[in-house]
Amino acid sequence: xxxxxxxxxxxxxxxxxxxxxxxxxxxxxxxxxxxxxxxxxxxxxxxxxxxxxxxxxxxxxxxxxxxxxxxxxxxxxxxxxxxxxxxxxxxxxxxxxxxxxxxxxxxxxxxxxxxxxxxxxxxxxxxxxxxxxxxxxxxxxxxxxxxxxxxxxxxxxxxxxxxxxxxxxxxxxxxxxxxxxxxxxxxxxxxxxxxxxxxxxxxxxxxxxxxxxxxxxxxxxxxxxxxxxxxxxx
Length: 234
What we know:
globular; Rossmann fold; single chain; four-stranded antiparallel beta sheet; 10 helices; 2 domains; alpha/beta
């Protein structure tokens, strides 16, 4: 479904991604692991059209996304839940969800909004509340719900557990699995490696712009280097 091929991305003269290649198959949950500064967010921003690579290709369902504007990437079926949520703080929950459907003009928008409310019942209770007054967990639910309003086939999730209490982290990851079972492929960037590997089929380890390790989720979870670097084991 998604192929990243020999991707090189720069910030000015800083070489952020140094020829990474990976793929995400239809229906999978694939996770990108790595420490701060490894290039995880840069990877997602490049896939979603927010950054342009200097070299390499990003292909979605066989077609290149290089040079495609971010809003057209959404139209092709990819939505991005960014690190830090980036909701519209001064808009209500409903208005934020409507913004997620800005590329659509069909009559099923309200139906899809009700589906988001089934997925996140807390949002239904807060539907008229200004988004900036929501708790961190509720804002994360809203960011994911907003992305779902575009009816993505591929969902990019950047650090969905950041800043959340453990009980909310479990809830968010259970919801990610539910969304995946409903037919949405997921590329997950997450520092909580244990949680990410518990729900993913496969994973890649990103280190300073390179991908030195890849494999099945269980294989990576059992890898001594991964356990030491990302799972907190000596």
